[in-house]
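Subject: Predicted fold for ATPase, 159 residues

User T.R. writes:
Posting the sequence so we have a shared reference for the thread.
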Amino acid sequence: MLSEIVANDAAVPIRLQDSAETPIAPSQWLPFLAQHRFFVCCPGAAQPMCHNLIEAMSVGTIPLIEYGDRLRPQLTDGENAICFRGADGLRDAIDRIHQLSASRLDEMSQSAAAYYDNHLCGKTFLAAFRDGTLDLTKRQIVMPFHSENFFSQTSPQAA
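User M.O. replies:
I've generated the structure tokens; pasting them so everyone works from the same file.
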């Protein structure tokens, strides 16, 4: 679907790269991400999200994401992410990106990196674990996106 959107809009500066054809060395992955303003966060096959979101935010790359509500705290559309729902929402999100000023993009990039530092960084998690500030009374996998049963009928909808 994304390739169709890109093919239909030559003005969209989206880079699609097949890692099987053009692999990126592990040592170059974070510098590669840091060269880009946005990262299209596709959900993983076995989990609602993959580590690529966390890696992108660690270098201030802004997530373009359909499941920003799956993190705790939730990502905020227009602040630390561009959130959308469905194919039409993705098209609208890309249009919104085109309207953002360079200074607004810089602010969003800084907010994405700050979100990582405050909520996703392993050092932050370990400090909270050490200091006893994590809520470990529930039986759950302690990750920001594993605190709820997303297959429940009461789970939140995508952003």
